[in-house]
Amino acid sequence: MKSAIEKILQSVGQLDRFNAGGDFHLRIENAPYMPLSIERHGEIVSVTHYFEMNGDLVPDPDLELLLTASGDWLPLAIQHSTGHYFRAVEVIGRGGRFEVMNPKVLRDLQSFARQWGRNLLMQGFDRG
User: Fold this and answer.
1) What does pTM read for this prediction?
2) How many Å apart are CA 34 and CA 37, to the nearest integer?
């Protein structure tokens, strides 16, 4: 997921701003696909597709990742439009420290993140 999001951000001229840290938000339209939102709040990154239902924005999915001290992106949790929520990792304080709470869910999230990242690039989100 990290390389896909960095490629997408580079294509729209926002990678430096994202890497500066702090708060960041970008919404990318790429019809016919659902808009993609990329957010950063300190060490936490959220990658989300949203759709509208009854006037509300609904995530489908919302993947939360941790920017670790080593520079890796570690999937923390995922929420689907069905309301299903799975958390694999808890963040401990600041500085990229974490504790794996559910190794099976973490493996599933890592696999999902790799596949979704490939899909985003195949769908052309990196073409600005």
Assistant:
1) 0.92
2) 10
